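Section 5.1 Outputs to date
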Amino acid sequence: MTGEKIRPSVAVLGLGTMGHGMAANLLKAGFTVTVWNRTQSKAEPLAHLGATVARSPAHAAENASIVVAMLSDDAASRAAWLGQDAALAAMPAGSIAVECSTLSPDWIRDLHAAVTQRGLRMAEAPVTGSRTQAEAGQLNFLVGADEDTVATLLPVLQCMSKEILHLGPVGSGAQLKLINNFLCAVQVASFAEALTWMEQTGLRLDTALEFLKRGAPGSGILSAMSDRMTCRTYEVNFLLRLMAKDQRYARAAAAQLGVDVSMASAALELFKQAEEQGLGEKDMSAVVEVVRRKLP
């Protein structure tokens, strides 16, 4: 009789909008999961599901075969991997570092060098999707790694995902994720202006929106923004301040390759105004309020 294959132990660093759902799906799939979050109270619901709550990234990583990070930006990632009581120095031999955050290609290169120097393996696997997809295990992973590392990680990624795209070596995922979020931000910003325009006309708004959603401009992001902007509740699916951060990273990454993404600059300006107006902790759809507040 063949015994059941032992699943690797997984540490998850960061339990925000995305990380919480990812960790929950790992637990549902039967993995041994240790979690860490800067605000420890966010880990309590996962402890009730069977996760071990770590006091630091190092504590989370010390017995993990795979360490997954889902953090807000370069600074948070750097602190979790390389700062005080950080994960990388504590990781055991043979373990794999998996960075799922949306980060700059420059920092991904630095982190990869640090992981390699320790004699460990790394994959970057930023995700597309929002809170709902993270909770449902329906994220898309944009993976940069070598073939062997991807094969080792598949059981872990599969329980959290709808699709896993292996794009090439480490660094590939960061580039595509920033391109993806650049396009999303431009659509969100332009739709905020279009919706505000529509609201000032005599159009039957529901009919007009359905026409746009199923017509040539239609997209998943337009449909989502249509619902969120018209209901005006702005429950967080994707934090507005993080989309602003992504546009800053996108501009810098494109500029390094000689590409002027002027549309990113226009979208970023609108998101910056939203942050200045206190909307940074709301869903990115709240950017429409900046346009509405400009009305005479």
